[in-house]
Specification:
Pfam families: DUF2157 (PF09925). By secondary structure, the chain is an all-alpha fold. Among the domains are: 32 residues, no CATH class; 112 residues, no CATH class. The protein has twelve helices and no strands. The protein is globular, with a radius of gyration of 25 Å. The relative contact order is 0.05.
């Protein structure tokens, strides 16, 4: 069903509502946010800014006063902050935004504690271990909190872990051939698996049904497989041919799931962007040298043409959704 805003826009376009009655129509349709909604929005934004600022302030405080502070004082300050935020989380009623924000702050402080421990005792030279251990420690909190924001942090940490791990280990698990391709394959496999598992369990768990996290995971997987397809354009061998086939399968699957089965314009726009990126790289390879300004002009026209075609198609899909509603 179309939203109140969409219905109001359609009535205005059809001339049903005269211009002098637009303000009254907006008030009746409750389109414009009222005072309480604005206050709630501002409070939410300020709360998250405060949490992020506080976690950054603690890190910068240690960085600036590192030589003047003893190790026990450093650990005491971080642990006191971590315990304080955890206690606030436990004392805050359920389904409260402050509860989620304080637990997120606790998860960020765990990262500060891990960094402090590694810097103080020089536990290892591999930076991927910091992010892996960070994600490992906050896993119980993510399971208990059942919150998408904390899970997003968990997914980001593991993605960073994979990237840094491939940077240290040139051939992890004896797959593929170079660090760049290894990173793309691993991040694609991890994010695709995460997206599939999240999609499966979201059918029975209401807190997992927020579309923005699934879109983030799909974006991470899409960036990886698009990078592999671009790599295949430059060098088409057996492994890259497999990547190109997987890219095509991903596009077909995405079209079936988010155009035929259920419409999601964000996913469709991501697929269009992936196609444009790969096609433009292929065109750049076909044009060869860019010493001639004409090649730049040709490539620019292709970018504009594909972008316009994608926008027209997405607009058409959007209109079809409105008619179905």
């Amino acid at each position: 069903m179309a939203s109140s805003r969409q219905q109001l826009v359609e009535l205005l376009q059809q001339g049903v509502i005269s211009p002098e009655h637009v303000a009254d129509a907006e008030q009746l349709a409750n389109v414009a946010p009222n005072k309480e909604q604005w206050q709630q929005f501002v409070n939410t934004v300020l709360l998250w800014i405060a949490c992020i600022s506080l976690s950054c302030a603690i890190v910068f405080f240690f960085a600036y006063n590192w030589s003047q502070m003893g190790r026990f004082l450093k650990f005491a300050l971080v642990e006191f902050s971590l315990i304080s935020t955890t206690l606030i989380y436990l004392k805050t009623p359920a389904n409260n935004l402050v509860r989620v924000a304080t637990l997120t702050l606790s998860c960020l402080l765990v990262g500060a504690l891990m960094a402090l421990f590694g810097q103080t005792y020089q536990t290892g030279a591999d930076p991927w271990q910091l992010f892996f251990n960070w994600a490992l420690i906050i896993t119980p909190w993510a399971l208990v909190a059942r919150n998408s924001i904390i899970w997003l942090l968990w997914f980001v940490l593991l993605n960073i872990t994979l990237v840094l791990y491939c940077d240290v280990h040139r051939n992890p698990f004896f797959i593929m051939f170079n660090t760049k391709v290894n990173t793309l394959w691993l991040t694609f496999a991890f994010n695709l698996a995460s997206f599939s598992v999240w999609q499966f369990f979201s059918a029975s768990q209401s807190w997992m049904q927020k579309s923005w996290l699934m879109r983030m995971l799909a974006t991470l997987a899409g960036v990886s497989i698009t990078g592999l397809a671009i790599e295949a354009v430059y060098k088409l061998d057996v492994i890259n041919l497999l990547a190109l086939v997987l890219w095509l399968i991903s596009l077909v699957s995405m079209y079936y799931c988010y155009r035929i089965k259920k419409v999601d314009l964000f996913m469709l726009a991501g697929g269009c962007l992936s196609i444009i990126a790969v096609f433009i790289v292929w065109m750049e390879k076909q044009l060869g040298s860019f010493d001639n300004i004409l090649n730049y002009i040709i490539l620019a026209f292709f970018v504009l043409g594909l972008g316009i075609a994608s926008a027209v198609w997405l607009k058409k899909v959007q209109r079809e959704i409105k008619h179905e509603c």
